[in-house]
Write a structure and sequence with these properties.
The protein is of the alpha+beta class and 253 residues long. 43% of the residues lie in helices and 13% in strands. InterPro entries: Aminoglycoside_PTrfase, Kinase-like_dom_sf.
Length: 253
């Protein structure tokens, strides 16, 4: 019986090496995430085992929030405890693990050039918000959008696409998942978002009580950043809904 596989192609060998390195790091330091086996590393492609299933939906949010919290707690415990959000970390082979601030400063300036921010005043406001969020214990960002999770018929959750990996604060990648679920399927009730945040914090806190640093105000700050950073993808990749985050009234969650 033949084993089904999936091959992803890249433009350069450097991109191949980066994605393979990310896969190996996640397998070692984010063990809660079930990854398809990487079977072949080619000059310009990677081949993985094929996973049958569907992308994540809104009803999966609670389980995924707990999964991310567990993965972020494990990564902090095993590798990211000494990492600083403002400074590139390093993989075992010495290659830099992108920091939180630098790549997003570049992306926000690009959003102004692309017309997704109205003026430099708005840009400076977003840059200040980015700097405000660059505190607390360090997690990783893996672009947790619905397409990057595969839910099997048995209910197993696989995490796919290891192209993007940077440092990020606790809760930042949960906010990316919430934002992209809304863009894909439509608005989420505030109570659902609050429940997902509680599930995330409970999961990460099991690794260390100091890691449950994300309250609703901080989550809203992350969502505001993602609203700008994901703006160019509206109408693409299944993002059929428009969305601007509505902050939770302070003190209500």
């Amino acid at each position: 019986m033949s084993v089904r596989q999936f091959t992803k192609h890249y433009e350069t060998p450097r991109q191949v090496a980066s994605a393979a390195r990310h896969h190996a790091w996640l397998a070692e330091h984010a063990r809660a995430l079930r990854l398809p086996a990487l079977t072949v590393v080619g000059p310009t492609n990677l081949t993985y085992e094929w996973i049958d299933g569907r992308p994540a939906r809104t009803e999966d949010l609670l389980a995924l929030a707990g999964l991310l919290g567990d993965a972020h707690g494990t990564a902090w415990t095993t590798d990211l405890r000494p990492a600083s959000l403002n400074t590139p970390h390093h993989f075992r082979d010495g290659v830099a693990f992108g920091d939180y601030i630098g790549p997003r400063q570049t992306a926000l300036r690009r959003r102004l050039e692309q017309g997704y921010l109205p003026d430099r005043v708005a840009l400076h406001a977003m840059l200040r918000l980015l700097e405000k969020t660059a505190e607390g214990p360090t997690a990783f960002y893996k672009d947790s959008n619905p397409r990057n999770f595969i839910i099997t018929e048995a209910g197993d959750i696989y995490t796919v696409d290891t192209d993007d990996l940077t440092l990020a604060p606790m809760g930042y990648d949960l906010a990316k998942l919430i934002a992209t679920l809304v863009l894909t399927y439509g608005p989420l009730p505030a109570s659902v978002v609050d429940s997902a945040l509680r599930a995330y914090n409970e999961a990460v806190e099991r690794h260390d009580s100091r890691l449950a640093t994300t309250d609703r105000e901080r989550l809203d700050d992350f969502l505001a950043l993602h609203a700008v950073l994901t703006a160019p993808y509206a109408g693409r990749n299944g993002y059929r809904h428009s969305w601007a985050p509505q902050p939770c009234p302070r003190g209500s969650a």
